[in-house]
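> call design_seq(struct)
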């Protein structure tokens, strides 16, 4: 303890401290009053509410516009499907009419040459020569039981002849094409295998070519249209099962009771067993 008592502070100093202490709460109250409106809600909370309401209104508006657009697209797709159905029926009736006309006149009706083929790889990599391996690579047949659609011309026919002991191919009908696309169809989007679960996937990839739905894709493949190459490359190679009942003999040609080679219209029965 100090021997000398502390000198008393002057009254003026104590009064100044009291004034400073009263100024600090008053400044805080003034800042809070400026931040809070008359209702007692902070200004930041009001701004956040206003911003959230604006975002919600914009989302609702976009959702309504998207719904209307989807409805319009659905109607357009339905009309296209109806038009394609009529086209397929008229083509089938025309072939029946020509066949009846030829039969009535004592002639034979020879249908036009096929423009489309479906190719299935039936053998593996053992003993494959480099030339055949390159042809299978160009045809995108990298695995057993893979299948692709091919446009028939001089070049592709020569390629099929080179790789014939390793493939089975023929001419698919409309039913086979629809089953393959709807049941086993996958799209190639950014090098990824995407299932064809929505028409938006087709429209995003092939919309600039006038193909906006799966029915457009089937029609382009079946008729071998001008955008057949883009439509075929858009489809991932089909991965099929081994046929029910198994293969007969892969080492023999189909005409000799085997499996490989050109089956023409008999390919449809094989695909039915593999889908």
């Amino acid at each position: 303890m100090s021997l000398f008592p502390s000198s008393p502070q002057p009254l003026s100093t104590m009064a100044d401290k009291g004034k400073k202490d009263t100024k600090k709460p008053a400044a805080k109250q003034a800042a809070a009053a400026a931040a809070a409106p008359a209702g007692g809600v902070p200004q930041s909370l009001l701004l956040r509410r206003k911003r959230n309401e604006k975002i919600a209104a914009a989302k609702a508006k976009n959702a309504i516009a998207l719904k209307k657009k989807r409805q319009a697209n659905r109607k357009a797709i339905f009309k296209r499907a109806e038009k394609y159905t009529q086209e397929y029926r008229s083509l089938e009736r025309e072939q029946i009419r020509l066949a009846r006309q030829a039969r009535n006149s004592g002639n034979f009706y020879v249908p036009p040459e096929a423009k489309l083929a479906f190719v299935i790889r039936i053998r593996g990599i053992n003993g494959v020569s480099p030339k055949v391996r390159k042809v299978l690579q160009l045809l995108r047949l990298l695995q057993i039981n893979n299948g692709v659609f091919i446009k028939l011309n001089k070049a592709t026919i020569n390629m099929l002849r080179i790789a014939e002991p390793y493939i089975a191919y023929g001419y698919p009908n409309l039913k086979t094409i629809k089953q393959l696309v709807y049941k086993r169809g996958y799209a190639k989007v950014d090098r990824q295998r995407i299932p064809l679960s929505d028409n938006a996937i087709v429209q995003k990839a092939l919309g600039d070519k006038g193909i906006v739905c799966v029915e457009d894709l089937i029609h382009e493949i079946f008729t071998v249209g001008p955008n057949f190459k883009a439509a075929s490359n858009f489809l991932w190679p089909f991965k099929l099962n081994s046929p029910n009942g198994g293969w007969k003999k892969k080492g023999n040609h189909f005409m000799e009771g085997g499996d490989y080679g050109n089956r023409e219209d008999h390919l449809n029965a094989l695909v039915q067993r593999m889908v």
